[in-house]
Amino acid sequence: MAIATTSPVTGEVLRRFDELTPEELEDKLARAAAAAASYRLTSVEQRAEWLHHAADRLEKEVESVSAMITTEMGKTFRAAEEEVAKCVRGLRFYATEGPAFLRDLEGDGGGVGAKQTFVTYQPIGAVLAVMPWNLPLWQAMRFAAPALMAGNVGLLKHASNVPQCAMYLEELFRDAGFPDDVFQTLLISAGRVEQVLRDPRVAAATLTGSEPAGRSVATIAGDEIKKVVLELGGSDPFIVMPSTNLERATDVAVKARCLNNGQSCINGKRFFVHEDIGDAFIEMFVAKMGALVVGDPMDEGTDVGPLATESGRQDVESYVDDAVAKGATVLLGGERPDGPGWFYPPTVLTGITPEMRMYHEEVFGPVAQVWTVASLEEALREANGHPYGLGSNLWSEDEAERELFVRDVQSGMAFINGNTTSYPEIPFGGVKRSGYGRELSDLGMREFMNAKTVWIGQDA
Protein backbone atom coordinates (compact mmCIF):
# COMPACT_ATOMS: atom_id res chain seq x y z
CA MET A 1 0.00 0.00 0.00
CA ALA A 2 1.31 3.45 -0.93
CA ILE A 3 1.99 5.81 1.96
CA ALA A 4 -0.69 8.43 1.39
CA THR A 5 -3.64 10.32 2.83
CA THR A 6 -6.71 9.21 0.88
CA SER A 7 -10.14 10.60 1.72
CA PRO A 8 -12.55 7.83 2.77
CA VAL A 9 -15.38 10.25 1.93
CA THR A 10 -14.45 10.70 -1.74
CA GLY A 11 -11.70 8.18 -2.48
CA GLU A 12 -9.44 11.03 -3.59
CA VAL A 13 -5.71 10.88 -2.82
CA LEU A 14 -5.01 14.10 -0.91
CA ARG A 15 -1.30 13.79 -0.22
CA ARG A 16 1.46 11.29 -0.94
CA PHE A 17 4.60 10.62 1.09
CA ASP A 18 7.95 9.17 0.11
CA GLU A 19 9.08 6.01 1.83
CA LEU A 20 12.38 6.13 3.67
CA THR A 21 15.36 5.10 1.60
CA PRO A 22 17.64 2.36 2.99
CA GLU A 23 20.15 5.04 3.95
CA GLU A 24 17.52 7.13 5.71
CA LEU A 25 16.23 4.14 7.65
CA GLU A 26 19.75 3.21 8.74
CA ASP A 27 20.30 6.75 9.95
CA LYS A 28 17.12 6.66 12.02
CA LEU A 29 18.06 3.36 13.64
CA ALA A 30 21.52 4.64 14.47
CA ARG A 31 20.06 7.78 16.02
CA ALA A 32 17.54 5.74 18.01
CA ALA A 33 20.35 3.63 19.47
CA ALA A 34 22.32 6.73 20.42
CA ALA A 35 19.24 8.33 21.98
CA ALA A 36 18.50 5.20 24.00
CA ALA A 37 21.95 5.25 25.56
CA SER A 38 21.51 8.77 26.93
CA TYR A 39 17.75 9.02 27.46
CA ARG A 40 17.73 6.11 29.91
CA LEU A 41 19.75 8.32 32.28
CA THR A 42 17.19 11.15 32.42
CA SER A 43 15.23 11.53 35.65
CA VAL A 44 11.67 10.33 35.98
CA GLU A 45 10.71 13.84 37.03
CA GLN A 46 12.04 15.25 33.77
CA ARG A 47 10.23 12.64 31.69
CA ALA A 48 6.98 13.40 33.52
CA GLU A 49 7.40 17.11 32.83
CA TRP A 50 7.83 16.46 29.11
CA LEU A 51 4.73 14.24 29.06
CA HIS A 52 2.73 17.05 30.67
CA HIS A 53 4.03 19.44 28.02
CA ALA A 54 2.86 17.05 25.29
CA ALA A 55 -0.58 16.89 26.90
CA ASP A 56 -0.73 20.69 27.09
CA ARG A 57 0.00 21.06 23.39
CA LEU A 58 -2.46 18.34 22.40
CA GLU A 59 -5.22 20.07 24.37
CA LYS A 60 -4.54 23.33 22.55
CA GLU A 61 -4.59 21.65 19.15
CA VAL A 62 -7.62 19.43 19.64
CA GLU A 63 -9.61 20.86 16.72
CA SER A 64 -6.86 20.69 14.11
CA VAL A 65 -5.68 17.26 15.25
CA SER A 66 -9.24 15.90 15.28
CA ALA A 67 -9.79 17.20 11.74
CA MET A 68 -6.58 15.46 10.66
CA ILE A 69 -7.75 12.15 12.13
CA THR A 70 -11.14 12.43 10.45
CA THR A 71 -9.59 13.35 7.12
CA GLU A 72 -7.25 10.38 7.14
CA MET A 73 -9.48 7.55 8.41
CA GLY A 74 -13.06 8.77 8.30
CA LYS A 75 -14.29 8.61 11.89
CA THR A 76 -16.70 11.35 12.91
CA PHE A 77 -15.15 14.60 14.08
CA ARG A 78 -16.87 14.11 17.44
CA ALA A 79 -15.26 10.68 17.82
CA ALA A 80 -11.89 12.14 16.84
CA GLU A 81 -12.21 14.78 19.55
CA GLU A 82 -12.90 12.01 22.06
CA GLU A 83 -9.81 10.15 20.87
CA VAL A 84 -7.64 13.23 21.33
CA ALA A 85 -9.05 13.74 24.84
CA LYS A 86 -8.19 10.12 25.67
CA CYS A 87 -4.61 10.72 24.54
CA VAL A 88 -4.36 13.73 26.82
CA ARG A 89 -5.67 11.61 29.68
CA GLY A 90 -3.11 8.90 28.94
CA LEU A 91 -0.22 11.35 28.86
CA ARG A 92 -1.22 12.91 32.16
CA PHE A 93 -1.83 9.52 33.77
CA TYR A 94 1.69 8.29 33.07
CA ALA A 95 3.22 11.65 33.94
CA THR A 96 1.45 11.52 37.31
CA GLU A 97 1.52 7.81 38.18
CA GLY A 98 4.61 6.72 36.25
CA PRO A 99 7.14 7.65 38.93
CA ALA A 100 5.42 5.33 41.41
CA PHE A 101 5.38 2.49 38.86
CA LEU A 102 9.15 2.86 38.48
CA ARG A 103 10.06 2.69 42.16
CA ASP A 104 12.24 -0.16 43.34
CA LEU A 105 10.37 -3.07 44.86
CA GLU A 106 11.93 -4.03 48.19
CA GLY A 107 12.24 -7.74 49.01
CA ASP A 108 12.93 -9.86 52.09
CA GLY A 109 16.71 -9.59 52.28
CA GLY A 110 16.99 -11.61 55.46
CA GLY A 111 15.04 -14.47 53.96
CA VAL A 112 17.67 -14.90 51.23
CA GLY A 113 20.74 -14.24 53.33
CA ALA A 114 21.23 -10.66 52.18
CA LYS A 115 21.51 -7.28 53.80
CA GLN A 116 19.10 -6.02 51.17
CA THR A 117 17.35 -7.28 48.08
CA PHE A 118 15.12 -5.40 45.69
CA VAL A 119 13.85 -5.30 42.11
CA THR A 120 14.71 -2.24 40.05
CA TYR A 121 12.86 -1.49 36.81
CA GLN A 122 15.09 -0.36 33.96
CA PRO A 123 14.36 0.53 30.31
CA ILE A 124 15.39 -1.95 27.63
CA GLY A 125 16.09 0.46 24.76
CA ALA A 126 14.44 1.07 21.40
CA VAL A 127 10.98 -0.47 20.99
CA LEU A 128 9.29 -0.84 17.60
CA ALA A 129 5.55 -0.12 17.56
CA VAL A 130 3.55 -1.38 14.58
CA MET A 131 0.22 0.39 14.81
CA PRO A 132 -3.14 0.36 12.96
CA TRP A 133 -5.20 3.15 11.45
CA ASN A 134 -8.48 2.78 13.35
CA LEU A 135 -7.42 4.83 16.40
CA PRO A 136 -4.40 6.50 14.85
CA LEU A 137 -3.42 8.62 17.84
CA TRP A 138 -4.67 6.57 20.79
CA GLN A 139 -3.28 3.23 19.65
CA ALA A 140 0.16 4.77 19.30
CA MET A 141 -0.17 6.86 22.46
CA ARG A 142 -0.97 3.91 24.68
CA PHE A 143 2.43 2.57 23.68
CA ALA A 144 4.31 5.86 23.58
CA ALA A 145 3.30 7.41 26.90
CA PRO A 146 4.34 4.46 29.12
CA ALA A 147 7.39 3.65 26.99
CA LEU A 148 8.77 7.19 27.15
CA MET A 149 7.98 7.47 30.85
CA ALA A 150 9.89 4.22 31.40
CA GLY A 151 12.99 5.61 29.67
CA ASN A 152 12.62 3.65 26.44
CA VAL A 153 12.95 5.01 22.92
CA GLY A 154 10.08 4.65 20.45
CA LEU A 155 10.12 3.74 16.75
CA LEU A 156 6.66 4.04 15.21
CA LYS A 157 5.74 2.16 12.05
CA HIS A 158 2.20 3.39 11.54
CA ALA A 159 -0.41 2.26 9.02
CA SER A 160 0.27 3.58 5.53
CA ASN A 161 -3.06 5.44 5.28
CA VAL A 162 -2.46 7.70 8.32
CA PRO A 163 0.97 9.20 7.64
CA GLN A 164 0.05 12.69 8.85
CA CYS A 165 -1.03 11.32 12.23
CA ALA A 166 2.22 9.37 12.43
CA MET A 167 4.37 12.40 11.64
CA TYR A 168 2.40 14.56 14.05
CA LEU A 169 3.25 12.25 16.95
CA GLU A 170 6.98 12.58 16.32
CA GLU A 171 6.58 16.35 16.18
CA LEU A 172 4.45 16.40 19.34
CA PHE A 173 7.05 14.67 21.50
CA ARG A 174 9.97 16.60 20.07
CA ASP A 175 8.27 19.94 20.63
CA ALA A 176 7.26 18.90 24.16
CA GLY A 177 10.95 18.82 25.07
CA PHE A 178 11.93 15.18 24.63
CA PRO A 179 15.45 14.88 23.21
CA ASP A 180 15.77 14.49 19.46
CA ASP A 181 15.39 10.90 18.22
CA VAL A 182 13.72 9.61 21.40
CA PHE A 183 10.52 9.11 19.38
CA GLN A 184 10.76 8.68 15.62
CA THR A 185 8.25 7.81 12.93
CA LEU A 186 9.37 5.37 10.25
CA LEU A 187 7.61 5.89 6.92
CA ILE A 188 8.19 2.40 5.59
CA SER A 189 6.08 -0.34 4.03
CA ALA A 190 4.94 -3.39 5.98
CA GLY A 191 7.45 -5.49 4.09
CA ARG A 192 10.34 -3.74 5.84
CA VAL A 193 9.15 -4.38 9.40
CA GLU A 194 11.14 -7.60 9.53
CA GLN A 195 14.39 -5.76 8.78
CA VAL A 196 13.79 -3.31 11.60
CA LEU A 197 12.73 -5.95 14.12
CA ARG A 198 15.76 -8.12 13.35
CA ASP A 199 18.12 -5.19 13.82
CA PRO A 200 20.12 -5.72 17.05
CA ARG A 201 19.59 -2.08 17.99
CA VAL A 202 15.84 -2.75 18.39
CA ALA A 203 15.09 -4.44 21.70
CA ALA A 204 11.42 -5.38 21.40
CA ALA A 205 8.17 -4.75 19.56
CA THR A 206 4.49 -4.15 20.13
CA LEU A 207 1.84 -4.66 17.49
CA THR A 208 -1.83 -3.86 17.31
CA GLY A 209 -3.43 -5.26 14.18
CA SER A 210 -4.64 -8.34 12.39
CA GLU A 211 -3.98 -11.92 13.37
CA PRO A 212 -1.77 -12.58 10.29
CA ALA A 213 0.33 -9.49 11.07
CA GLY A 214 0.68 -10.59 14.68
CA ARG A 215 1.71 -14.07 13.68
CA SER A 216 4.40 -12.66 11.39
CA VAL A 217 5.83 -10.30 14.01
CA ALA A 218 5.69 -12.98 16.73
CA THR A 219 7.57 -15.41 14.49
CA ILE A 220 10.33 -12.91 13.79
CA ALA A 221 10.56 -11.83 17.42
CA GLY A 222 10.70 -15.44 18.54
CA ASP A 223 13.50 -16.17 16.11
CA GLU A 224 15.42 -13.15 17.44
CA ILE A 225 14.45 -13.90 21.07
CA LYS A 226 12.91 -10.48 21.54
CA LYS A 227 9.95 -9.50 23.68
CA VAL A 228 6.72 -8.69 21.82
CA VAL A 229 3.25 -7.61 22.94
CA LEU A 230 0.38 -8.44 20.59
CA GLU A 231 -3.12 -6.96 20.56
CA LEU A 232 -4.90 -8.63 17.67
CA GLY A 233 -8.46 -9.15 16.52
CA GLY A 234 -11.61 -9.40 18.52
CA SER A 235 -15.19 -10.54 17.95
CA ASP A 236 -16.49 -9.56 21.34
CA PRO A 237 -19.65 -11.12 22.79
CA PHE A 238 -22.36 -8.81 24.15
CA ILE A 239 -24.67 -10.86 26.40
CA VAL A 240 -28.05 -9.50 27.54
CA MET A 241 -30.05 -11.17 30.30
CA PRO A 242 -33.70 -10.52 31.37
CA SER A 243 -32.83 -8.73 34.61
CA THR A 244 -31.21 -5.78 32.85
CA ASN A 245 -32.57 -2.40 31.78
CA LEU A 246 -33.36 -3.13 28.13
CA GLU A 247 -33.52 0.51 27.07
CA ARG A 248 -30.05 1.16 28.43
CA ALA A 249 -28.68 -2.12 27.09
CA THR A 250 -29.86 -1.43 23.55
CA ASP A 251 -28.51 2.12 23.64
CA VAL A 252 -25.07 0.80 24.55
CA ALA A 253 -25.39 -2.11 22.10
CA VAL A 254 -25.76 0.36 19.24
CA LYS A 255 -22.77 2.35 20.44
CA ALA A 256 -20.77 -0.82 20.99
CA ARG A 257 -21.33 -1.98 17.42
CA CYS A 258 -21.00 1.34 15.56
CA LEU A 259 -18.36 3.19 17.59
CA ASN A 260 -15.53 4.28 15.29
CA ASN A 261 -17.75 3.39 12.31
CA GLY A 262 -17.71 -0.19 13.54
CA GLN A 263 -13.93 -0.42 13.23
CA SER A 264 -12.62 -1.29 16.66
CA CYS A 265 -11.22 -4.55 18.00
CA ILE A 266 -13.34 -4.18 21.15
CA ASN A 267 -16.61 -3.31 19.43
CA GLY A 268 -19.42 -5.61 20.51
CA LYS A 269 -19.92 -7.77 17.43
CA ARG A 270 -21.86 -10.86 18.52
CA PHE A 271 -25.04 -10.20 20.50
CA PHE A 272 -26.43 -13.06 22.61
CA VAL A 273 -29.85 -12.22 24.04
CA HIS A 274 -31.93 -14.34 26.38
CA GLU A 275 -35.01 -15.72 24.62
CA ASP A 276 -37.36 -14.18 27.19
CA ILE A 277 -36.42 -10.71 25.92
CA GLY A 278 -35.19 -11.65 22.45
CA ASP A 279 -38.02 -10.14 20.42
CA ALA A 280 -38.08 -6.92 22.43
CA PHE A 281 -34.29 -6.51 22.21
CA ILE A 282 -34.21 -7.11 18.46
CA GLU A 283 -37.05 -4.68 17.81
CA MET A 284 -35.41 -1.91 19.84
CA PHE A 285 -31.90 -2.65 18.57
CA VAL A 286 -32.88 -2.64 14.90
CA ALA A 287 -34.88 0.57 15.31
CA LYS A 288 -31.99 2.36 17.00
CA MET A 289 -29.41 1.07 14.49
CA GLY A 290 -31.68 2.19 11.67
CA ALA A 291 -31.99 5.68 13.13
CA LEU A 292 -28.24 6.33 12.87
CA VAL A 293 -27.25 8.95 10.32
CA VAL A 294 -24.59 7.84 7.84
CA GLY A 295 -22.75 10.66 6.12
CA ASP A 296 -19.95 13.21 6.08
CA PRO A 297 -17.89 12.60 9.24
CA MET A 298 -17.24 16.33 9.63
CA ASP A 299 -20.99 17.01 9.89
CA GLU A 300 -22.18 17.35 13.49
CA GLY A 301 -25.31 15.36 12.69
CA THR A 302 -23.46 12.31 11.41
CA ASP A 303 -23.35 9.18 13.56
CA VAL A 304 -21.48 6.83 11.22
CA GLY A 305 -18.88 7.90 8.68
CA PRO A 306 -17.25 5.86 5.91
CA LEU A 307 -15.02 2.87 6.42
CA ALA A 308 -11.36 3.82 6.34
CA THR A 309 -10.31 2.00 3.18
CA GLU A 310 -11.85 0.65 0.02
CA SER A 311 -10.50 -2.83 0.75
CA GLY A 312 -12.03 -2.66 4.22
CA ARG A 313 -15.48 -2.08 2.77
CA GLN A 314 -14.96 -4.90 0.29
CA ASP A 315 -14.12 -7.20 3.20
CA VAL A 316 -17.30 -6.25 5.08
CA GLU A 317 -19.40 -6.77 1.96
CA SER A 318 -17.89 -10.18 1.38
CA TYR A 319 -18.73 -11.31 4.92
CA VAL A 320 -22.33 -10.17 4.61
CA ASP A 321 -22.79 -11.60 1.12
CA ASP A 322 -21.35 -14.94 2.24
CA ALA A 323 -23.70 -15.10 5.24
CA VAL A 324 -26.78 -14.18 3.18
CA ALA A 325 -25.91 -16.71 0.51
CA LYS A 326 -25.78 -19.40 3.22
CA GLY A 327 -29.10 -18.53 4.81
CA ALA A 328 -28.64 -15.56 7.16
CA THR A 329 -31.51 -13.09 7.50
CA VAL A 330 -30.86 -9.37 7.04
CA LEU A 331 -32.98 -7.31 9.42
CA LEU A 332 -31.35 -4.01 8.50
CA GLY A 333 -28.86 -2.71 5.93
CA GLY A 334 -26.69 -5.17 4.08
CA GLU A 335 -26.11 -3.19 0.89
CA ARG A 336 -23.61 -0.44 0.08
CA PRO A 337 -25.13 2.95 -0.78
CA ASP A 338 -24.68 4.62 -4.14
CA GLY A 339 -22.20 7.45 -4.50
CA PRO A 340 -18.54 8.14 -3.78
CA GLY A 341 -16.60 7.12 -0.70
CA TRP A 342 -16.42 3.92 1.30
CA PHE A 343 -19.68 4.07 3.21
CA TYR A 344 -21.50 1.00 4.55
CA PRO A 345 -24.78 1.14 6.48
CA PRO A 346 -25.44 -0.19 9.98
CA THR A 347 -26.47 -3.80 9.42
CA VAL A 348 -28.14 -6.43 11.60
CA LEU A 349 -28.13 -10.16 10.78
CA THR A 350 -29.69 -13.20 12.41
CA GLY A 351 -29.47 -16.88 11.57
CA ILE A 352 -25.66 -17.01 11.63
CA THR A 353 -24.31 -20.57 11.42
CA PRO A 354 -20.85 -22.18 11.55
CA GLU A 355 -20.80 -22.51 7.75
CA MET A 356 -20.54 -18.73 7.46
CA ARG A 357 -17.19 -16.95 7.57
CA MET A 358 -18.35 -14.29 10.01
CA TYR A 359 -19.18 -16.98 12.56
CA HIS A 360 -15.44 -17.61 13.01
CA GLU A 361 -13.84 -14.31 11.94
CA GLU A 362 -13.93 -10.61 12.77
CA VAL A 363 -16.12 -8.25 10.75
CA PHE A 364 -14.50 -4.81 10.89
CA GLY A 365 -17.49 -2.62 10.13
CA PRO A 366 -20.98 -1.75 11.48
CA VAL A 367 -22.41 -5.28 11.14
CA ALA A 368 -24.11 -6.93 14.13
CA GLN A 369 -24.84 -10.63 14.55
CA VAL A 370 -27.75 -11.44 16.90
CA TRP A 371 -28.60 -14.79 18.54
CA THR A 372 -31.26 -15.71 21.08
CA VAL A 373 -30.18 -18.13 23.81
CA ALA A 374 -31.96 -20.08 26.53
CA SER A 375 -29.47 -19.35 29.31
CA LEU A 376 -26.28 -17.58 30.25
CA GLU A 377 -24.49 -20.93 30.07
CA GLU A 378 -25.51 -21.28 26.42
CA ALA A 379 -24.38 -17.73 25.69
CA LEU A 380 -20.99 -18.44 27.24
CA ARG A 381 -20.58 -21.66 25.25
CA GLU A 382 -21.23 -19.75 22.03
CA ALA A 383 -19.04 -16.82 23.08
CA ASN A 384 -16.14 -19.05 24.08
CA GLY A 385 -16.35 -21.10 20.90
CA HIS A 386 -14.75 -18.26 18.97
CA PRO A 387 -10.96 -18.20 18.42
CA TYR A 388 -10.68 -14.61 19.70
CA GLY A 389 -10.82 -13.54 23.34
CA LEU A 390 -10.27 -9.81 23.69
CA GLY A 391 -13.19 -8.09 25.41
CA SER A 392 -16.60 -9.26 26.58
CA ASN A 393 -19.78 -7.66 27.87
CA LEU A 394 -22.63 -8.76 30.13
CA TRP A 395 -25.85 -6.94 30.96
CA SER A 396 -27.39 -8.37 34.13
CA GLU A 397 -28.52 -7.31 37.59
CA ASP A 398 -28.18 -10.87 38.89
CA GLU A 399 -25.11 -11.32 41.10
CA ALA A 400 -24.84 -15.05 40.39
CA GLU A 401 -24.89 -14.39 36.65
CA ARG A 402 -22.17 -11.78 37.01
CA GLU A 403 -19.96 -14.14 38.98
CA LEU A 404 -20.46 -16.91 36.42
CA PHE A 405 -19.64 -14.53 33.57
CA VAL A 406 -16.43 -13.27 35.17
CA ARG A 407 -15.34 -16.81 36.04
CA ASP A 408 -16.09 -18.51 32.73
CA VAL A 409 -15.90 -16.02 29.86
CA GLN A 410 -12.68 -16.55 27.91
CA SER A 411 -11.46 -13.00 27.40
CA GLY A 412 -8.80 -10.61 28.58
CA MET A 413 -11.41 -8.10 29.73
CA ALA A 414 -14.92 -8.52 31.14
CA PHE A 415 -17.23 -5.50 31.34
CA ILE A 416 -20.60 -5.63 33.13
CA ASN A 417 -23.41 -3.13 32.49
CA GLY A 418 -21.16 -0.76 30.55
CA ASN A 419 -19.46 -0.48 27.20
CA THR A 420 -16.11 -2.19 26.74
CA THR A 421 -13.44 0.44 26.38
CA SER A 422 -9.82 1.24 27.24
CA TYR A 423 -8.58 3.38 30.10
CA PRO A 424 -4.96 4.21 30.95
CA GLU A 425 -5.68 3.20 34.54
CA ILE A 426 -6.51 -0.48 33.84
CA PRO A 427 -4.82 -3.23 31.80
CA PHE A 428 -5.82 -3.85 28.19
CA GLY A 429 -5.26 -7.08 26.25
CA GLY A 430 -6.63 -10.46 25.28
CA VAL A 431 -6.22 -14.22 25.29
CA LYS A 432 -6.34 -16.94 22.65
CA ARG A 433 -5.84 -15.51 19.13
CA SER A 434 -6.44 -11.99 20.37
CA GLY A 435 -2.80 -11.92 21.43
CA TYR A 436 -0.80 -11.74 24.63
CA GLY A 437 0.81 -9.21 26.91
CA ARG A 438 -0.88 -6.12 28.30
CA GLU A 439 -1.00 -2.45 27.47
CA LEU A 440 -1.84 0.43 29.80
CA SER A 441 -1.73 0.61 33.61
CA ASP A 442 1.48 -0.32 35.42
CA LEU A 443 1.50 -3.68 33.61
CA GLY A 444 1.76 -1.99 30.23
CA MET A 445 4.73 0.07 31.33
CA ARG A 446 6.59 -2.90 32.78
CA GLU A 447 6.14 -5.06 29.65
CA PHE A 448 9.17 -3.32 28.18
CA MET A 449 11.36 -3.02 31.24
CA ASN A 450 14.04 -5.20 32.75
CA ALA A 451 12.91 -6.22 36.22
CA LYS A 452 16.45 -6.49 37.55
CA THR A 453 16.99 -8.40 40.78
CA VAL A 454 19.55 -6.84 43.13
CA TRP A 455 21.08 -8.79 46.05
CA ILE A 456 23.44 -7.11 48.47
CA GLY A 457 25.35 -9.30 50.93
CA GLN A 458 25.88 -8.74 54.63
CA ASP A 459 28.85 -6.58 55.57
CA ALA A 460 32.02 -8.60 56.12
UniProtKB/TrEMBL annotation:
<keyword id="KW-0521">NADP</keyword>
<dbReference type="InterPro" id="IPR016163">
    <property type="entry name" value="Ald_DH_C"/>
</dbReference>
<dbReference type="InterPro" id="IPR016161">
    <property type="entry name" value="Ald_DH/histidinol_DH"/>
</dbReference>
<feature type="domain" description="Aldehyde dehydrogenase">
    <location>
        <begin position="3"/>
        <end position="454"/>
    </location>
</feature>
<dbReference type="InterPro" id="IPR047110">
    <property type="entry name" value="GABD/Sad-like"/>
</dbReference>
<dbReference type="GO" id="GO:0036243">
    <property type="term" value="F:succinate-semialdehyde dehydrogenase (NADP+) activity"/>
</dbReference>
<dbReference type="Pfam" id="PF00171">
    <property type="entry name" value="Aldedh"/>
</dbReference>
<dbReference type="InterPro" id="IPR015590">
    <property type="entry name" value="Aldehyde_DH_dom"/>
</dbReference>
<dbReference type="GO" id="GO:0004030">
    <property type="term" value="F:aldehyde dehydrogenase [NAD(P)+] activity"/>
</dbReference>
<dbReference type="InterPro" id="IPR044148">
    <property type="entry name" value="ALDH_GabD1-like"/>
</dbReference>
<protein>
    <submittedName>
        <fullName>Succinate-semialdehyde dehydrogenase [NADP(+)]</fullName>
        <ecNumber>1.2.1.79</ecNumber>
    </submittedName>
</protein>
<dbReference type="InterPro" id="IPR016162">
    <property type="entry name" value="Ald_DH_N"/>
</dbReference>
<comment type="similarity">
    <text>Belongs to the aldehyde dehydrogenase family.</text>
</comment>
<dbReference type="GO" id="GO:0004777">
    <property type="term" value="F:succinate-semialdehyde dehydrogenase (NAD+) activity"/>
</dbReference>
<keyword id="KW-0560">Oxidoreductase</keyword>
